[in-house]
Every structure is written in C-alpha cells, then in structure tokens.
Amino acid sequence: MVRIAIAGGTGGLGRTLLDELAQNSDHIVFVLSRKPDLPFDGPANVRCLVTKYENVDDLKELLKNNEIRTVISTLNPPLPEVHAAQDNLIRAAAQSGTVKRFIPSEWAIDYFTDDERLPLSWKVPKRQSIAELKKHPELEYTMVYNGYFLDYYGMPHCESYMLREAPFIDIAARKAGIPGSGNEKVTFTYTKDVAKFVRKLVESESKWPARSVIAGDVFTFNEVLEVAERVRGERFDVAYDSLDDLRKGKITEIPSYLPLYDAFSKEFMLEMMAGFGVAMATGVFAFEGDLLNETYPEIHTTKMRDFIKNHWHGR
C-alpha cells in the first residue's frame, strides 16, 4: 500500500493521475485542496486534505499525521504564488519524516533548456523548485517529461480533464498557426497514458531516475495537419510562424486561443505559446535517450493518427 498526496488533484492532469492511482484499492490517495470538499464523488480510497501552502510547519504536520509517503505536484498555472506553494510543499515533505518520494510539477519538457530554445520567463522558478529538491537528499524525486498533451487535439470530444485548448492547430475551426517549418518532430502523450506511467513509478520499488521521459507518439505539425485535414475532409487556413517572429513574441492567433484569455491574460498566453513554439521549432520536444516506454513496454500509448480519427471523423 502507498499513501499518496496529489497537489492539484481536483482537475487537469492531477485529476487524471488521481483516477489512475485510485484504481489500486490498496492505495490511499489524498487530494491536497484549499477547499474541504472534493467537487466530485470519488472511491472509498480517495480522501481530501484541506491544505494551506503558506505555512511549512502546518504542511509538514499534515503530511506527517496522514503518513504520506509519495507527493505528486501538478500545481498550475506557472505563476509566482503557485511556485512558492510548491517550494513550501517540498520543504514540508522533507521535514515530515514520512514522505520519501516527490514528483514536482514539471511535466512537458526540460525547463533547464537554454533561452535560445526555450524563451519562457517562468522557467526560472521551475528551476528553483528543482534546486530546492536537491537540498533535501532524503527525498527521492523524478522529473516527468511527456512532451505536449495529446488531449488538445481531441477536444471537446475526447475524455480529458485538461483545460480546453487547441494549440497551433484548431481542428474545430480548421485553422492553424504552425511554429517553424512544421517539419520538426514533437512528442505528444495522452494524459491517461502519462497517468499509467506515473502509477508504475509510484508502485515500483526501484530507485527513480532523475528524469522520467515518456513518448506517446512523435509527429511533426505538418503531419498532424495532414491527418486533421483528411479526417475533416477539407483544407485548413494555415500560417507558419518563423523562428524570428516567435522569438519576438509574434504568433498567429487562432480561434481556440480566444477563450483562454478569460482564464489567463492575453499577454501571458501569447508569451507561453510563442515560447513553446520556439521550443518545438528547435527540437526541444523531440526527446532523445532512455524512455519509460522501454521500461514498461506493456503500456501501449495512444497514437496521434488514431486519436484524431476517433474523435473527429464525421464531425
């Protein structure tokens, strides 16, 4: 049995991880939440812990008293107060005496990538969280890199807890603003598949690698566009954003970005999309080296071509 705490477990990736981990009835999965009640009905082995991230001592006692062994952070969005909350959670976990393992809210890609290939201002506090983890050798940790979430290219028709968005290619509107040439390889992974790999990590007694890299599928954006156009039965309105423009923060706005301005500022969203566009156009999302897929070959990941066809055919 593993007693697991998920920060950010009420929605998005955290909720997906919760669903997967709770399938093992031997686990007890705690959702760290600022509110006393969960916004959904969970199984008997899912519990809610009211959490205030501002006080490290209180956090430490919360983790200790509930005998938490593994903490998984999916805290988001990448704002200063969110990073501060994760850093306090790391300190509390290290002081608790019960927490042995920690997965920080990295996901996606390596935020230690240089500015030329990843020009995002908020990667600095992400690096600081890893530096904080390194101060506590009593905590075993791994950074999970899964590329871009495949979910976005099946929304709103696929099963997903992620915020609805369609980065770079808006299949519903048949419009695209593709970073770079569109021929660069990009890794995409469905959140449900990410959760399966995370469950394997949590249940494994083997020492965690510093980096846990997952590749659901590898496609170029031109290949994604080709599949989407074929499934939808017509050509899309397509623009290509040069690397120079992306580095200047200039990006083609597509209809799927507009609703996101209500959740985040337009400036923040466009900076993030332009920064990720640079990363995609310079190969940051094309992973090399050992993959968790090789460690757990029994996990069959969802493929881009099938995903688009299954969720967009006939629509």
Can you walk through the features of this model?
This protein is α/β, with parallel strands linked by helices. It is built from ten helices and 14 strands. The chain has a six-stranded parallel sheet, with helices on both faces. Strands 8-11-13 form a three-stranded mixed sheet. Strands 9-10-14 form a three-stranded mixed sheet. Helix 3 links the parallel strand 4 and strand 5. Helix 3 runs parallel beside helix 4 and helix 6 runs parallel beside helix 10.
Features:
alpha/beta; three-stranded mixed sheet; 34% helix; globular
Determine Rg (CA atoms, Å).
19 Å
**Class from secondary-structure proportions:** alpha/beta
Q: What's the count of strands?
A: 14
Helix content: 25-40%
* Beta strand %: 15-25%
Poorly predicted parts: none
Give the helix tally. 10
The end-to-end distance, rounded to whole angstroms, is: 44 Å
Q: What profile does the largest beta sheet have?
A: 6 strands, parallel
What is the arithmetic mean of pLDDT? 95
Strand and helix order:
EHEEHEHEHEEEEEEHEEHEHHHH
Q: How would you describe the shape? A: globular
How are strands sequenced across the largest beta sheet? 3-2-1-4-5-6
SSE layout and pairing:
Elements: E1 3-7, H1 12-21, E2 28-33, E3 46-50, H2 56-65, E4 70-73, H3 80-96, E5 101-103, H4 123-134, E6 140-141, E7 143-145, E8 148-149, E9 169-170, E10 175-179, E11 185-189, H5 191-203, E12 211-213, E13 217-220, H6 221-232, E14 237-241, H7 243-247, H8 266-281, H9 292-295, H10 304-312
Parallel strand pairs: 1-2, 1-4, 2-3, 4-5, 5-6, 7-12, 8-11, 10-14
Antiparallel strand pairs: 9-10, 11-13
Helix pairs in contact: 1-5, 2-3, 3-4, 6-10
